[in-house]
């Protein structure tokens, strides 16, 4: 009969136990009631299957261990100010929160919390002399008056020669540039509200006109083919996302800008394949070298998705001629790969060679435009690296569509765009700025190269950029990468000069150094030469 009643009404025991109120403070009566709510249904199940003996032993054992657990939980001393019995928390007073936390802490102490493999890789200390030099210089920067014994910065490609022109224009036009209303009142919606993430239409138009003017090209850049980003770094990273999958590769002629190893690889997972150029050809790009590098990559099972060129070259300063650009387009079409043309120094020319944009080649010939993409920015030619304005110019509609969506992660602020729309639209200022800047770059290049020549250091023939590519191979012992880095260390520690060694640029010939002379004032050049002389004598 017991068996039958249990099966017919399995919830009656539960109802019976739950009808008894628990005593305040979590007393033993309350614990027993909780135990009975657990035990009695089990007893019925076990009796129904295994008989009276098993139905008594198993629930009894469970009841014993449950009582032991309650006793240990109540063993800690209660608080000196126990909560009121009417409080809902009174029923939990028997359970010590402090004890529970300590138990959890001891059980979970298995080591420091982990971050992603990507973060660990990026967080590792810099091992490139390029970044090490920048960090050391920032810790002890040279100042003609406040820190004359500090490190002189020649490792950062920044043009400080024409900041006076920028400062004057902003001081005179800042307020007018930020006022958007016709009545002279500030139009706050134009700078404080959401704007197109890939750039305002007015900004794209102004940038397109500036690119045509500063590059000296007859090509009219189409604003609808522009995507604006917060600097050229996210622009080139965005193109990597659009053109290649993780593990795919780009061919990059050397020597090349050291930042490419970081900017293109960190988050996209693409690989860079150096294509070595030599001093005997003034480090000019060779199609034969490209062919060899492409074939070797294919043998390794590596898929090449494009070529990255810097025109003008960084760090050499030479310019690709029209014939070489045609050959590059033929090579890319034959291999069915893309071309990224980094033209960020296109307006910083000072030599006899004329800069030719890849856009000009595409305009004049019937080439496959969908495989060509141009990188530009206002950091170099307009001396505004702090404004963070980069440009993607592409003929590929799929790339443009994807880049516009990716621009949400690197958009240019609305106030920055408003100010630059006004500056770039001031045609008289822009023309005066371009002419003055080119004159100043040329003067500094001639003076700096002449100073190095006094020490027996020659520079390659260059026509553009904010730097010179200096041959110091005669000063290194032994003649290898180790000797080059030892000289770089001496220049940094003894001479207090930061330059970029060629090995950081993947130059295959030891002893070459990039020296960014536009970071200096003209009166600083003798100081630099004297410091290099000190290292030579040491």
Could you walk me through the main structural features you see in this protein, from its secondary elements to its overall organization?
- This protein is an alpha/beta fold and 538 residues long.
- It contains 19 helices and 13 strands.
- Strands 2-8-7-6-5-3-4 form a seven-stranded mixed beta sheet, sandwiched between helices.
- Helix 14 links the parallel strand 6 and strand 7.
- The N terminus is likely disordered.
How does the overall form come out from the CA principal axes?
A: globular
Please report the total strand number as a whole number. Answer: 13
How many H/I helical runs?
19
Kindly report the spatial arrangement of strands forming the biggest sheet: 2-8-7-6-5-3-4
Low-confidence stretches: 1-49, 76-80, 85-90
Gyration radius, rounded: 36 Å
How is the secondary structure organized here?
Blueprint lengths: L1 H7 L3 H7 L9 H46 L23 H12 L8 H7 L5 H11 L12 E2 L9 H16 L10 H4 L8 H14 L11 E4 L2 H12 L5 E5 L6 H4 L7 E5 L11 H13 L4 E7 L11 H14 L2 E5 L15 H7 L7 E6 L12 E5 L2 H10 L7 H11 L2 H28 L3 E2 L8 E4 L9 H13 L3 E2 L1 E2 L10 E4 L9 H13 L1
Parallel strand pairs: 1-11, 3-4, 3-5, 5-6, 6-7
Antiparallel strand pairs: 2-8, 7-8, 9-10, 10-13, 12-13
Helix pairs in contact: 1-3, 2-3, 7-16, 9-16, 10-15
